[in-house]
Amino acid sequence: MQAPRSYRVIAIVGRPNVGKSAIFNRLAGRRISIVHDEPGVTRDRITATCKMTASPFTVIDTGGIGSNPDDSFSNAIKQEADIAMESAELVLFVVDGIEGLTPVDQELASYLRKADKAVFLIVNKIDDKQNVGLADEFTSLGFHKTFAISAAHNSGISGLADHISSTLPDETDKFTPNNHKLKIALAGRPNVGKSSLINALLNDDRTIVSDIAGTTRDAVDVPLSHGGIDYTLIDTAGLRSRNKQNSSIEVFSGMRSKSSIRRSDICALVVDAAQGATSQDRKIANIIRDSGKPCLVIANKFDLYHPDAAKTDRLAALQDDIAEELFFIPYAPVIAASAKTGESVQRFYFAIEQIRKASWEGLNTGSLNRLLQDALLAHPPPAGKGGKRFKLLYATMARDNDKDKAIVGADFILFCNKKSLLPGSYERYLENKIREKCHYTGIPISFKYRERESRKRVRKK
């Protein structure tokens, strides 16, 4: 398993020739070649780990920003700032102390001040003590943390690294897989055995079990500890289709069940293995998918599924049936179990552990961008109107504001030319390519898009 996703990430932004690459190389501890393209065009971005401090952190060198503050570059400035703010906890805003304050510096500073993000102002090229006063010109930008350094002479870099490390979150204070209570909602049609499964997991008749469909009317929270991990199992009311809800109680029970799905960390969709996945099971699976919740499928009553066949054949056939009926959640692991006999019920914990660990695996920024660019080259997106194609400028994992969440989603932000040029089928292709590299068992993958405005449209404003 890869290490949990780090929140100790910084990004370097600024216009060209202010020394961003030199600062990047100093923090990385080695010279790394960086490709420059034409002015105003995003260049390659790279990442490295700074090991100068007791707790390492990741450094992202963003693309250069144009040197002229005309309308066409205004959007580029915002885009680079957006990339930095989406990718990192802390932004290093680099300016040239010798050249002095420029309009591009002012525009980028204005944009960074509006963000809820820590910003260090780095006045570079202060090569000797006599030039320290040059940094005073930049106080008008309004940043409280200002550092006068010289990347070329390695002056002030060590102190800057120490300040960065102390400002970033301490990873030891973050969530670790064994200290967070998981809320797991068991959802499904009436009478598929949700309450029976909870009793089997508890080895206790805590919830009421009956052959009468709809016995559970409200969501019931059941605390449970297993293997040193605390869980809350949410036993939800069975979800009928709307045209079969014959009382206001059932309507409100259904609403509470959907609310339970939304407040859970993981959803377990319980289906009747003997009956197979029904249209209502598919509707419930869609609710889970649309809520963006990690999920697994428990095929209960497996003892009644072709009981005379060999177990290996039964398992293979059940997996095929579930995959066909619930094809839109292929990432969900499937457990074949029987609450009545206790068969394979304990595999529930194994599946939860798979999902929990998978949520903290992740592709680093460099690997993610290489993977997606390789996918685009191997199979280019189809051309749209006028022969235009979808172009990916940069990709990063979304920064989850709630860092104490037990399960972290696989949410990716794609900076692109125009989202409408990307067909849904091609989005699924990119998702499959990501899963080939990092399975994200039980975790839905989502893409969010940040479009680059066309220069023509910007100039008209």
Number of strands: 15
Ranges where pLDDT stays below 50 over 5 or more residues in a row are: 33-43, 173-179, 205-218, 245-253
Give the terminus-to-terminus CA distance: 50 Å
Helix % is 25-40%
Shape: elongated
Please identify the structural class as seen in this structure. alpha/beta
Q: Number of helical runs?
A: 12
Round the mean pLDDT to the nearest integer and report it.
82
Radius of gyration: 27 Å
**Which percent range describes the beta-strand content?**
15-25%
Strand order, largest beta sheet: 2-3-1-4-5-6
The main pleated sheet reads as: 6 strands, mixed
SSE series: EHEEHEHEEHEHEEHEHEHEHHEEHEH
What does this protein look like?
The chain has 461 residues and is an alpha/beta fold. Helix content is 32%, strand content 19%. A 6-stranded mixed beta sheet has the order 2-3-1-4-5-6, with helices on both faces. Strands 8-9-7-10-11-12 form a 6-stranded mixed beta sheet, with helices on both faces. A 3-stranded mixed beta sheet has the order 13-14-15, sandwiched between helices. Strand 14 (410-416), helix 11 (424-437) and strand 15 (445-451) form a beta-alpha-beta unit. Helix 2 crosses helix 3 and helix 10 crosses helix 11 (424-437).
